[in-house]
Design a protein that fits this description.
The complex is a heterodimer of chains A (136) and B (453).
Chain A (H helix, E strand, L loop, with lengths): L2 E5 L3 H13 L3 E5 L2 H11 L3 E5 L7 H10 L9 E5 L13 H5 L3 E4 L4 H23 L1
Parallel strand pairs in A: 1-2, 1-3, 3-4, 4-5
Helix pairs in contact in A: 2-3
Chain B lengths: L6 H33 L7 H26 L8 H26 L11 H11 L2 H23 L20 H83 L8 H31 L6 E4 L1 H12 L9 E6 L6 E4 H18 L5 E9 L2 E8 L32 H11 L3 E7 L3 E9 L3
Parallel strand pairs in B: 2-4
Antiparallel strand pairs in B: 1-3, 4-5, 5-7, 6-7
Helix pairs in contact in B: 1-2, 1-3, 2-3, 3-4, 3-5, 4-5, 4-6, 5-6, 6-7, 7-10, 8-9, 9-10
Classes of the chains: A alpha/beta (136), B alpha+beta (453).
Chain lengths: 136, 453
């Protein structure tokens, strides 16, 4: 079963996500800060990374995703960004912003479990498709 | 770009115009007095002198008017204006004084009580020219008049006696001449002193006023900055509240949607209720965060914004909130509207709020119209719906912060901050917002904004 890495400094949020994902059969690992998360990603090569945007600093999440996307070993790992900023505040992270913001998809906090599951499935499938050519 | 004229400059130009207008009055006055003196009092006024003098004054005053128009024109460097104006005043005053001297000479000299009219120029100059110039002018006038009287007395120049007015012998009476002259001289200086002092006092008051006005501005700025800092503080607090709430909601959702295993019916029910309350609090904190974030912004990021595109964006963002409702939403914009200079993010937030409200409060089957047009050189945006409307007693309060109307409980869980924020944004852009409603028939919100920001 696919491996998921959750990087978020809020242990309770991590727990909530973990419960949902593990019940769907995914293996879940986690890290509570950007550096630890990056190290674990390098070591364990997860099939998906769920990244919180705001941790110790306002855009720590973006920094980690930037590093990962610019790392030849890790850039193929899809990233799901957890954001507290949504359409109500006017920052509509739409389809066009994905490339610029270096995340593959976004999910808004508080997380609707059904939405989370849907996006996770989608991204893992996408990641698997990307990986296939290099194996073949 | 020309600097806005200072208080003094504006006054100076105003005074010049006034000075020229007074001279028209003077012309009329000379003519009238002459005619009355001749016809009513039988005085032998030398019209052969008076008439040419009047014509000369008319020509000279018209020329002055033209010159004034010239120096008022925007091509003139404003820095020079005070000096040019002052020189113009001095020129006019000198011309006036010489003319008066000549007229007095030909109409009896010291016999003519109008000799005291030299005081007018003294006072006028005192109000417009610097102190030293005024005293010098008064001295020059006093000396000139004295010279005229002496010259006529000693027959260096002919004395033109005004027949029919006073006995000729008066002019040979030294006592009379000296006393009149002394009164004249003293009046001149005293009048100069008064006029100059009045102007000084006025100047002091003006400076005081400017200072006070400057202090007021500073105090106002300081107050606005304090308010902005307060909003920054609220923003941080709202964020710190919202963050853990998100986790709470995620945890509750994970349990209530069955991801942590089966739970007893009653437990589920209680958890759902807790979750609803938490969601309500989360919404409140979100609203507070948005409100304070926008209020704590130091400046607007002003750019040309295409409002039609913005409205359509807002409508598509509000659509998922329809929650299964069938709503007829139409956007109609006048052709050829120029872009609005505005902060796009804030404007989007405001429009989204209004459209979102319309969606929220209109039941399935209803209609929402968003129209944009030009009205009285401003941009007019109207959002109207056929929803539940706003009760009459609530209408004057809907833009107040934290106000929640009586009939909204079942439709939303907001903090009542949305409309107050919309009003804040609209007014910050120099616009205004009004609402009309018929309860049960719907509501219409009208937003007026200047195109130029």
């Amino acid at each position: 079963m696919p491996k998921i890495l959750i990087v978020d400094d809020d242990a309770d949020m991590v727990e909530a996500l973990k419960i949902v994902l593990e019940s769907k059969g995914y293996r879940v690992d986690f890290a509570y800060d950007g550096d630890d998360g990056y190290r674990k990603a390098e070591k364990t090569r997860p099939d998906l990374v769920i990244l919180d945007v705001m941790m110790k600093t306002k855009d720590e999440g973006f920094q980690v995703s930037y590093k990962m996307k610019n790392d030849p070993e890790l850039k193929r790992i899809p990233i799901l960004m957890l954001t507290a900023v949504g359409k109500e505040t006017g920052f509509a992270f739409g389809k066009g912003d994905e490339d610029y913001l270096l995340a593959d998809e976004f999910v808004e906090k508080p997380v609707k479990p059904s939405e989370l599951v849907l996006k996770v499935e989608r991204l893992i499938k996408k990641g698997a498709q990307k990986a296939r050519p290099s194996r073949g | 770009m020309r600097k806005r004229p200072g208080l003094r400059e504006v006054e100076l130009i105003g005074s010049l115009a006034w000075y020229i207008n007074i001279r028209w009055v003077a012309v009329f006055f000379i003519a009238a007095v002459s005619l009355i003196s001749i016809s009513v009092f039988g005085v032998d006024v030398p019209l052969e002198i008076i008439l040419p003098a009047i014509i000369a004054i008319i020509i000279y005053n018209a020329a002055s008017l033209l010159y004034l128009k010239k120096i008022k024109s925007p091509e003139i460097v404003p820095v020079n204006l005070p000096q040019r104006a002052a020189r113009f005043v001095l020129f006019q005053a000198t011309a006036d004084l010489l003319l008066l001297l000549v007229l007095i000479h030909y109409t009896g000299g010291a016999e003519n009580p109008f000799i005291f009219y030299f005081i007018f120029h003294t006072v006028l100059s005192g109000l417009m020219l610097p102190k030293k110039t005024c005293y010098r002018q008064s001295a020059a006038v006093t000396l000139s008049v004295g010279a005229l009287v002496l010259a006529e007395y000693f027959s260096f120049i002919p004395h033109h006696h005004l027949k029919g007015f006073i006995e000729a012998e008066l002019y040979e009476n030294p006592k009379y001449l000296i006393s009149v002259y002394l009164v004249f001289a003293s009046t001149m200086f005293f009048a100069t002193y008064l006029a100059v002092t009045v102007l000084e006092k006025l100047g002091e008051k003006e400076t005081e006023l400017e200072e006070k006005s400057g202090e007021l501005e500073k105090a106002n700025e300081s107050l606005m900055e304090k308010d902005r800092l307060k909003s920054e503080y609220v923003m941080m607090v709202a964020h710190d509240i919202k963050s853990p709430l998100s986790s709470i909601l995620s945890l509750i959702a994970a349990v209530t949607e069955g991801y942590s295993g089966k739970i007893p019916e009653k437990t589920l029910e209680l958890l759902i209720r807790a979750g609803t309350k938490a969601a309500s609090l989360h919404g409140y904190a979100s609203d507070l965060l948005n409100l304070s974030r926008i209020r704590s912004q130091k400046s607007l990021d002003l750019k040309p914004v295409d409002m039609e595109t913005l409205v359509e964006e807002a409508v598509s963002m509000a659509a998922p909130e329809k929650e299964g409702k069938e709503l007829d939403i139409k956007v109609e914009f006048e052709r050829g509207l120029p872009p609005l200079i505005a902060d796009r993010e804030q404007m989007l937030h405001a429009v989204l709020n209004l459209v979102g409200n319309a969606v929220k409060y209109t039941p399935s089957g209803g209609m929402i119209r968003v129209e944009g047009k030009r009205k009285e050189n401003q941009f007019l945006l109207t959002i109207s719906d056929t929803g539940v409307g706003i009760p009459k007693e609530d209408l004057p309060h809907i833009f107040d912060e934290f106000f929640r109307g009586g009939n909204v409980e079942k439709f939303s869980k907001g903090a009542g901050l949305g409309l107050s924020l919309v009003k804040f944004i609209v007014e910050r852009h120099g616009g205004s917002i009004t609402a009309e409603s018929e309860p049960g028939r719907g509501a219409t919100f009208s937003v007026r904004l200047p195109f130029g920001g």
